[in-house]
Amino acid sequence: MTYQIPRGTADLLPEQSPAWQSLEQHLKDFCYLYDFREIRTPIFEHTNVFKRENDSSDMVNKEMYTFTLPGSKTSLTIRPEGTAGVVRSFVENKLYADPDLPMKLYYLGPMARHERPQKGRLRIFNQFGVESLGVKSPYADAEVMVLAYSILKSLGLSDIRILLNTLGDDESRAAYRAALKDYFAPYVGELCADCKRRYEQNPLRILDCKVDHDKECMQQAPRMSDYLNDESREYFRTVCEILDRLEIPYQVEDDLVRGLDYYTHTVFEIVSENREMGAQSTVLAGGRYDNLIPYFGGPEGMSGIGWALGLERLLIALQAEGITLEDAAGVDCYVMVLDEKARMYAFELLTQLRAAGYQSEMDFQGRGFKGQFKAADRAHAKHVLIIGGREFEEGVVTVKTTETRTQETVAAADLVAYLDGLDADGDDHHHHDHEEGCQCEACRGEH
Ligand code: ATP
Ligand code: MG
Fold first, then answer.
1. Less crowded by CB within 10 Å, the N or C end of the chain?
2. CB-defined site of ligand 1, < 6 Å
3. Nearest residue by C-alpha to atom 28 in ligand 1
């Protein structure tokens, strides 16, 4: 019997976690700057949160992990995306009654979709997303797009492009839908099985089909832009005008419809044009939704806009451009124990070092001098603390400082002050988390 991870899922191993943590911190810092606050919703919801009436998307119809536990009638679905749960919560908790809308929220976490696994496409993947709920203004659209673009630019990505389109309001879409039905009527037979279903349910989806994309009948299909009413056209014009004014580059793609059925008006994607992305080049995608908040029982006419970013895809895009995130800083102190009777004493010093803010590590394996010294080296220790029988008996520690290649024996009681002093002398100012007004030796010199 062997145990293996399920297909299309991945472990985040400790060697990768610094990059993930640094990326997540970066995203959160940006949200702070734009005043978006975190929301956490459950990783499963009642199935009807995702499976809404008339939804024709692949995600809802083919990719959801839906289950019912034995003895229960409740159908639950592991979330395939973040927006539906966030909107459900926004309505259920009456957040729409807040006097200061839009409610600007972000979320981060795993999503599940039963897809064919390939590079940049997993069955469990992580999304970071934002939603701006409750105000329909082109400025709200621009705000989330500027946020998205700024995040990706600030990470150093250069091969990225914003693709932008509008799906218009319900009236415009109904007109377009009718035009598509007329147009595709003679071609339905040539389309893939999914598109035959889409033809009935939502012909807009046909334009998004990866199978039929290159067929001739797709090229001549009616264009959304010809069916927009004045209001929808004006809304989109203003969104574009704001982006122009801010010199945010974008490209209007009038066949961009997006994979989810709930979008209205503005839809957008940010793609990486780096060749290594292959077919999975969309890093971030989103749009406005006029009908979702009312669908969940919120106020009629209340609209929202959001986007989601695939973290795995973003990391592939960063890697493709040679951008690394994690800082490979070493530990501050590595404590070597050279005599078993000194172990308790050493462990106590280790604890004191950590309490003083020094990231510290120690051998538990009882390795010899050479083995421990190599471990200290692998940990890129700034200071190696040597504790043998003599140090134990005299209550001292021998401190070797890697950078300056100095070695000194100091009393255990003075150890932290000694290290603080070294840090204060060096270029590296001390980095433990002492607050303003801290009276430790190093801090007294600074504040
Ligand atoms: P695609 O066209 O690639 O299937 P989508 O339209 O289904 O994408 P969204 O539902 O809009 O994607 O999700 C937003 C982002 O989440 C995508 O741009 C992508 O970065 C990421 N994403 C979506 N599905 C997956 C997946 N199966 N594995 C990894 N990342 C994904
Ligand atoms: Mg998809």
1. N
2. 59, 81, 113, 115, 120-122, 125, 127, 259, 280, 282-285, 308, 310, 312-313
3. 121
